[in-house]
Amino acid sequence: MRILDLRSSLLSLLVGSILVGCQSQAADPATVANGSEAGRRHLLERVDDTAIAQLYADGFENLSLNDKILCYFLSEAAIAGRDIFLDQKFEHNLVIRELLEELYVNRAVMAPKTAREIERYTKLFWVHNGIHNSISTRKEILQLTGGEFNAAVKAAKTRGAKIGIESEPLFRIMTDAENQISVTNKSPGEGRDPLLASSNNLYVGVSTADLAGFQEKNPLNSRLTKQADGVLVEEVYRAGDGAGVPPGLYAKEITAIIANLEKAIPHAPPATAKALGLLIRFYQTGAVVDWRAFNIAWVEDTDSVVDQINGFIEVYMDARGQKGSWEAIVSFINLPKTAAIKKLAEETQWFEDRMPWEDEFKKKEVVGIAARAISVITETGDSGPITPIGINLPNESDIRENFGSKSVNLSNVVEGYAMASVGGSAGEFSWSPEEVARAKKWSALSSDTHTNLHEVVGHASGKVRPEVRNPADSLGVYYSTLEEGRADLIALYWISDPKMQEMGILPDPEAALAEYESYARNALVQLRRVVPGGQIEEDHMRNRQMIVHWLIENSEAIAVEKRDGKTYYRVTSVAAFREGSGRLLAEHMRIKATGDFEAGKALVETYGTKVDPILHAEVLARIADLNLPSATGFVQPELKLVRDDKGEIRDVKVSYPQDLAAQMLSWSGRH
Known about the structure:
The protein is α+β, with helices and mostly antiparallel strands.
């Protein structure tokens, strides 16, 4: 499970000088202006409401040569697999990208207005991994007429563009605002089916009714297709092993991933090499047993400097919460920032014993949690360019319970969001000057603490009844929202406990109040990501709306205030907020532990999905003057091997291209 940038992007509500107050020494507040510091650029450009920023990986130069080489080949594996996610997200994404990139590189011969629109739309495609927005899940619309588009294609061809695909049907897809609207639609309305209403490529012609009585062998790493005779077929993602296992879906891409993983193994420490070998075996067979063997070995690899995530992992894109989206992250440990998160990991049993839920749902022994802050080198697929800020894996609950888990804070990503955020004002959505002052003083630290509690203590906590086995099966389309809500509530419950001061994590109880106020404001501010007339689909957004609106209706924690025609969510007290969070947390744990589908559905549908159109219009009007991005995508660091005259690798150099188009075209082989 993960935390997306929806939390960290709230930092953009603060003035620029606040944003860097608790960042590393590399970001000196005195040198920051317009998203830049001496010798560096952070905020590169804005495309509509999407920001594009450079991600920096400070400290890479200090790694050992073997660790640098390991990072290089793991990064090559990450890039080799990125097309898998584009295809999973929408069946036409890859051919649309081919068309858009050919038009982009030849835009100089087009009419200026057309060239600007091709540039705008292509950059949005790159950042969001397709034509659907990663946050809202809604389709971005190409704003060209048929005549303008045809003229652009003709002009590009005269310049030598290789457009060997039929462009007219793709134009209709990109400009049709009525079809294939949402990549994931978990609440399509009465009488409509979530699978058929979703535009992702995880199912082909399959409805929820078709699945009655059907048992999937590979629910995480397969596409489910309904054949002409009505038979359901699992198309397993695998390369084949050259022996008894034939190639499957994405065999070409997975074979390329394997080739780079094999090159990485000689430079990996033993525990990492073991895990990578098992990952290769999984990619060859696609077998669940091999995926589990890899995850166990990966969890047990706790001391390596370099780590990676690579596979079909998170299930947010699937309306059923079963099928994993492909992603890859390559990182190395950030030792200075790991200290605080490790403190929480060492105390997980203390927190578990005191959770505000029934004793039968408490773990008697919390198995080791490896917690660290990391610096990211490469993120692709479902993790990049738009990236999470915190991750806890593996998602398999029994592996967590018996072997442990890894929780990470993506420290350079968090810093990157902060450094790229300029302007704005906390005052627009804060009820009082005192709330603004608390945000200035504490938001960076309290938000980071919330992320660590969410990942380290949150997702790894609690146990379910034996008959439930996999809560995702019982809770269906609501599982991801409820699990993210449970982890958020754990963070909200514990952040104001005196234990935070005793551990030296938060120096002042006022920081907890600042976090509560930020969380309440977020329920208003994140509405900017919802299109007028739409509903909330993304699970992290749903869970935060659910928590805040439940607290408004069922506790004394948040008062809805009006002033000068504007709405504010005022936190009444730390005690009331914590008490309400504890009650809702206990109910979330009960729902998960018992598989209570109806109770989970009621929570999400009542409090998490619907948007008040009047309030929405008000928030959009207030946001307009602040010029806040609703998403940020990162240009990744790039690695290059340095060889001597004999061809031996002597170093790996890191560089920062600061150009989204250059990086994307390079990855596509066009530069």
